[in-house]
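*** Query protein ***
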Amino acid sequence: MNDRQEMDGDFQLTPVPADLETGDLLGTLGSPEEQGPEAQFCVFRSGRERFCLPVLEVEEVVNWPTVTMLPLGPPYLRGIFNLRGTIVALIDIAITEGRRPGLLPRYVVVASLRGDGQREHVRIGIAADEVVGTYLVTPDAMLEQAPENVPHCIGMLRHDDRLALLIDLRRLLEVFPGPVI
């Protein structure tokens, strides 16, 4: 079965009558107060842990690219790679778990930290063994505490009866400083 067939099986459209007006269609969705504020997160596994990032910080997920190693770089810095003409630093946040040296991750989650006047726009690649998916969650699925031994995380997300550590990109770049490219 190919990817297109799998997607068609999971994705279902509900027919809407052609004479339904926009106001009526919006009324069937319910008011924003009834729906509550929701946020969407990309969940991925790196090593034994699940991590997540807000989808607005994720530019894309790519298959493992050709990586150029950097001599004398820290162990967590896997190297750099070319993403359509842009050089992106690739870090492995699972390195603290003692990932076997010969075992390569399968994906790269390309995250983007927008500049704030004093800092420039930063793009970073995070090594991932598995991309679990994207989840639309309500605030009650978020836990504000994070393990103390994971300084780049600011909370946890509850999904599918599992927990994913919520990454703060600013803290991630402080804990795992990569080359500025």
